[in-house]
Design goal:
single chain; Rossmann fold; 6-stranded antiparallel β-sheet; 63% helix; P-loop_NTPase; coiled coil; YhaN AAA domain-containing protein
Length: 814
């Protein structure tokens, strides 16, 4: 790819400018601040993305100061003479990229056809030469200089070579074959001394291990029993709750067998209409018998007069009957909730035998005091050192062997460590001193720490339930007080009857009032129409009877008595449905569990069996507790284990330190060798050709003074024309720079099959004398036959062709 045109929309000081570039080499001339470096930075930014606004990169953004559009485009021509245009403007993640091949826009993924897959860092490290990279050569010491020169052969290898050297030095800090003060050497000597001391304890340790094994077996049996006891305790609680729910379940099951289906329920409108028709018919028939009836009887008259005298109060009661009905429903619901809470409280006492009424929650400070343990024994005896020893041997085998034996040894090591860790978790819970004054005050005397801790949530639940119970009882008391007030008012007005349903009492009263009013209206009507013929009344009765018969026929009954009986059955079934729904809500998921028992005796038999198993397991745990205490006492009498355990701990720590130090030493050694091996592989195919080309370039730059460059895995040798060989650090600084430039340019030409982008030279040779500068220009011309070179400088060589020079001083961009 040859860069043929640069077009800048806006970048730093440049805006709306463009230049055509030669395909071989292009010299860009300008004094300081003319925008030379800005132009080269623009080329890199369009190729690889604009710098971000974070950190030091923000100074490389070159956002235009005059408000122009940020970005621009580069035009390339490939080997097939096809034009490629790379356009990048302001946008996220390095700017918005658009790529054209000829006149057709192509996917951004084809950008690798131009960049060869290189990153910006790779490109700068290989194709960009500036005063910074050249001047850095002057500041390197001998070792750094040789590393820098040798790293030219592979992109990024300088950092890898430095890393390899650091790794090698780091490994020698940990261990040297003839060292004395290195940490790993010291740990190995210490290990020999510790193992010699350990052999003295072996005889006593046999009896101690036997007691420890017996103790571990007893603990395992105790833990197994404890798990079973937890399961039985949960089962016991569930069965106790089911036993308490049995009477309600029996009632629910019996009611569930009742047929509560309503094939043709009576509507409220039909029921009210039938009552009115029946009443009207009865009144008419009475009028037929006593045509001269002109007033209500005394009782009905008194009833109606009493209503008129107290109309406002009675109408208010009638308007409030819905609220009164809601209060009675709330009363029943609160009673049920109180009963449910009583059940929960009883269950808490049943499942927590240590729970007392006067227990109080512990404060945060009291819990901290309670949790401060006073241990009376060293738990380190639980470590299974034989298993750990086998694991360590397996680790050594896994490290120094290969194949199936290495895999097997690795598995043994992992299994041994996991087993030893598991055994170490089975330590005794440290005995604690519970003799704290606040425990007696809050009724915890005689309980263990674990029991006290376990009771905190239970006491909190009990307090919450009691608080809720108090709240419910207050609501119930308030509800009952309101109902008593309503009942008193109903009693004052004579509305109470045999029914406990106050709303029904009001409804009965107004039903009677409605009946009396209807009767009164009929009487008044009769008085007005007493002169009408008997036939008119008969027609009315016939009409009413037809309407009533239609309603009766709709519900398949023959009389009003049958309809009233059907209505009564309908109300009864609705009551059963409500009771079933209420019981079902209370029983919840317990219904399925209760269905598993055929009768109450079977349930109670199961509960007794679980209770017996609970007592048996509790007794077994008590016996095991005493057995564990006895074994501990016996083991402590064998010998004082403190000193031996300290020795074992010291050995374990010593071995752990050796493994960690060995791992560190081995990792550094292997990593250093790996870096060198990978760099050798990465460069072996290109180095011979690159060195041949670099030798030619170096000879040209030194005017034939140096004729050969030799390279081996660890150093570079330069041969002068008189056959004298020099190391890199023996060269003069200027000659070292010439060598560095020769290698850099030779490397770029060698990888031109991977990336064919211009070499960017940013006034890199300002410190060269005239002879060296002329040699550099000759080299640039030669290199440009293989790879395009863009060279910016403030010192113009008068011998350069004018068609290869762009003078930035002639460009106006104010």
């Amino acid at each position: 790819m040859k860069l043929t045109k640069v077009k800048i929309y806006g970048f730093g000081k440049w805006s709306d400018v463009e230049w055509n570039f030669n395909k071989d080499y292009q010299v860009i001339y300008g004094q300081n601040e003319a925008g030379k470096t800005t132009l080269l930075t623009f080329i890199q930014s369009v190729l690889f993305g604009f710098a971000s606004a974070r950190g030091d990169e923000k100074f490389q953004q070159y956002k235009p100061k005059n408000g122009s559009n940020y970005g621009g485009e580069l035009q390339f021509v490939d080997q097939n003479n096809v034009t490629w245009i790379v356009r990048r403007v302001d946008g996220k993640n390095g700017g918005d990229l658009t790529l054209y091949r000829g006149t057709q826009q192509v996917p951004e993924s084809l950008m690798t056809r131009i960049t060869g897959g290189f990153t910006k860092e790779d490109y700068v490290g290989s194709h960009v030469l500036n005063d910074t990279s050249i001047m850095s050569i002057y500041k390197l010491n001998e070792e750094q200089l040789e590393t820098e020169i040798m790293a030219v052969g592979a992109v990024g290898s300088k950092e890898w070579l430095m890393t390899a050297d650091n790794l090698e030095k780091s490994s020698e800090v940990v261990y040297k074959a003839r060292g004395r003060k290195q940490p790993l050497v010291e740990r190995m000597e210490e290990h020999d001394k510790l193992m010699k001391r350990k052999s003295e304890y072996e005889n006593q340790q046999v009896a101690y291990k036997k007691a420890s094994a017996d103790l571990e077996a007893a603990k395992q049996e105790y833990d197994s029993n404890t798990q079973k006891l937890n399961v039985i305790t949960k089962q016991q609680s569930e069965l106790a709750n089911l036993n308490k729910q049995w009477p309600r379940f029996v009632s629910y099951r019996e009611l569930n067998q009742v047929d509560v289906s309503l094939s043709n329920p009576i509507s409220r409108n039909d029921w009210d209409q039938s009552l009115q028709l029946e009443q009207e018919l009865r009144t008419l028939k009475q009028n037929m018998e006593s045509i001269n009836l002109s007033k209500l009887d005394d009782e009905d008259e008194d009833f109606r007069d009493y209503y008129q005298a107290n109309k406002d109060d009675l109408d208010y009661l009638n308007a409030q009957k819905g609220n009164i009905s809601d209060l009675q429903f709330q009363q029943r619901n609160l009673n049920q909730q109180i009963n449910d809470n009583d059940t929960k409280i009883d269950n808490l006492y049943a499942t927590n035998r240590n729970l007392k009424d006067n227990m109080q929650l512990l404060t945060e400070d009291e819990l901290v005091q309670l949790n401060t343990p006073k241990t009376n024994s060293d738990n380190s005896h639980n470590l299974n050192w034989p298993i750990i020893g086998v694991s360590l041997v397996a680790l050594v085998l896994a490290t120094f062997t290969s194949g199936a034996l290495r895999i097997g040894a690795g598995l043994v090591f992992v299994a041994g460590i996991l087993y030893a860790w598991h055994e170490n978790q089975q330590v005794d819970e440290p005995e604690q001193d519970n003799n704290l004054e606040f425990l007696d005050k809050k009724s915890y005397n005689g309980l263990s720490v674990s029991d006290i801790q376990a009771l905190q949530n239970v006491i909190r639940q009990l307090h919450d339930l009691n608080s809720e119970q108090d709240h419910l009882e207050k609501l119930l008391h308030s509800t009952e007080a309101n109902l008593d007030q309503w009942k008193s008012q109903l009693n004052n007005f004579g509305l109470l009857d045999s029914s406990d349903n106050l709303a029904e009492n009001i409804e009965h009263y107004f039903a009677r009032l409605s009946s009396i009013n209807t009767k009164s209206e009929l009487i008044e009507k009769n008085n007005l129409e007493n002169k009408q013929s008997q036939q008119g009344k008969l027609n009315r009765i016939s009409d009413l009877q037809v309407q009533l018969n239609n309603i009766l026929k709709r519900y398949s009954v023959d009389s009003m008595d049958g309809l009233m009986k059907l209505h009564s059955e309908q109300l009864q079934k609705r009551g059963i449905v409500n009771k079933l729904e209420q019981d079902r809500e209370i029983l919840g998921n317990d219904v399925d569990l209760l269905n598993k028992f055929s009768n109450e005796m079977e349930l109670q038999s199961k509960l007794r069996s679980v209770d017996q198993e609970f007592k048996s397991l509790s007794q077994q745990n008590n016996d095991l507790n005493r057995q564990i205490g006895s074994i501990k006492t016996k083991r402590e009498q064998i010998f004082n284990n403190t000193e031996y355990q300290k020795l074992v701990d010291d050995i374990a720590q010593n071995e752990t330190d050796m493994i960690e130090l060995y791992d560190e030493w081995l990792a550094d050694k292997l990593a250093s060798k790996w870096v060198h091996s990978m760099l050798d592989l990465a460069t072996e195919n290109r180095y011979p050709k690159m060195l041949k080309r670099a030798t030619h370039y170096f000879n040209l730059l030194t005017n034939g003074n140096y004729i050969d460059i030799l390279f081996d895995s660890s150093s570079l040798k330069l041969t002068r024309h008189d056959k004298v060989k020099f190391d890199v650090h023996e060269l003069s600084k200027a000659t070292t720079v010439q060598l560095y430039i020769s290698l850099r340019l030779a490397f770029v030409i060698e990888i031109s099959d991977l990336i064919d982008l211009p070499i960017l030279v940013d006034d890199a040779f300002v410190d060269f004398d005239k002879i060296r500068t002329n040699s550099i220009f000759d080299l640039i011309k030669e290199v440009s036959t293989d790879n395009q070179v863009i060279y910016v400088t403030a010192n113009l060589n008068a011998e350069l062709p004018k068609d290869h020079v762009i003078n930035l001083e002639e460009v106006s961009n104010d």
